[in-house]
Amino acid sequence: MIFDGKPIDQISDDEIDADHPAEIETILADAYHLLDDPRDAEDYPTWESLQPASFRFELSRVRTLKTLDDLKAWSQSQYGKSSDKFTKPQTQVLWDAYKIRKAALTPPLSAFAKKVIKRLSEPGVNIRRAKYWLYNEAPAKLNPTELANAWQIIKAKEAVIPA
């Protein structure tokens, strides 16, 4: 290849600039970006827009659910079924949207709940007393999400301790 009258391998890097661009064949594919790349256009179709209507409907449904109970009902209705209806990437996108929506709808932990979870996570906790407290007294002091988090810690501790 010839550039500015010289073979391309004899051109130094400082000779190639905006006024003297290199031949497109000499640039690595990952080392440039076309300014008029059609993928930069506003109307270029997104991955989601190229998917079937049934997938887009389920995705919009997940993204617009208003309560955790509705989200839970959706997840129970879809569990195990979405792999039959959708491709693996579509299923992953649906469940990622579910996780994002669940995180958005889940209220933050209260200071008291953080203390309870920290205490339950410590080694040497009497699991029987903790379960008694969680079953009898905690429902009045923790919201359902905080209570579920506390129970998860107890169940994880029970799984580690042999019976």
Major sheet: arrangement of strands: 1-2
How many discrete domains? 3
What is Rg? 28 Å
Provide the β-strand percentage band: under 5%
- Count, helices: 8
Run of helices and strands: EEHHHHHHHH
The gross shape turns out to be: elongated
Share of helical residues = 40-55%
> Spans with pLDDT under 50 lasting ≥5 residues?
none
Write down how many β-strands occur, each being a DSSP E stretch of 2 or more residues.
2
| Biggest beta sheet summary | 2 strands, antiparallel
Descriptive report:
With about 160 residues, the chain is an all-alpha fold. It has three domains: about 1-40, no CATH class; about 50-105, no CATH class; about 110-160, no CATH class. The protein contains eight helices and two strands. Strands 1-2 form a two-stranded antiparallel ribbon. It is elongated. The mean pLDDT is about 80.
Mind sketching the topology for me?
Layout: E1 2-3, E2 6-7, H1 53-64, H2 68-78, H3 82-85, H4 88-105, H5 111-121, H6 127-136, H7 138-141, H8 144-160
Antiparallel strand pairs: 1-2
Helix pairs in contact: 1-4, 5-8, 6-8
Concise structural overview:
The protein is mostly helical and 163 residues long. The chain has helices spanning 53-64, 68-78, 82-85, 88-105, 111-121, 127-136, 138-141, 144-160, and strands spanning 2-3, 6-7.
